[in-house]
Amino acid sequence: MRKKTRSVVSGLLIAVASLIALAYAYEEARVNMLRFFVGTMVMILIVLVFAAAAVAVVTLLRKLGRKLRGGADDDLDDSRHE
Questions:
Q1: For a designed S-S bond to 28, which of 23, 40, 51, 57 qualifies (C-beta 3.0 to 4.6 A apart)?
Q2: pLDDT greater than 70 at residue 31
Q3: Where on the phi/psi map is residue 13: left (φ > 0), alpha (ψ -120 to 50), or beta?
Q4: pTM, to two decimals
């Protein structure tokens, strides 16, 4: 596992442990904690989906741009060699 990945996972585990400790310290109801965790997971999943969609759009636009420029450059290169 890469160092950055380990750091992110460690940070997430520390955050979860802190929230659980805080919930027990203030005797928070388990139902509320479950709602909080489910809500947080849904929010993170939505952010991940939007991030993946943004990366896919940027990648597709880049490939399309290269293809359009590459096609025009290939035509010019062929005419020079003849």
A1: 23
A2: yes
A3: alpha
A4: 0.55
Q: How many domains does the chain have?
A: 1
Where helices occur in 1-82 by DSSP H, the ranges are 3-25, 30-81
Q: Supply the range of the domain harboring residue 52.
A: 3-81
Find where tokens 């709602």 sit. Answer: 35
Whether the CB-CB separation of 23 and 33 falls below 8 Å is answered with: yes
Q: How far apart are CA 11 and CA 13, in angstroms?
A: 5
Question: What residue has token string 């596992």?
Answer: 1
Summarize pLDDT for 34-66 with one digit per residue, the tens.
788 788 889 988 998 999 999 999 999 999 999
Structure tokens at 70: 């590459």
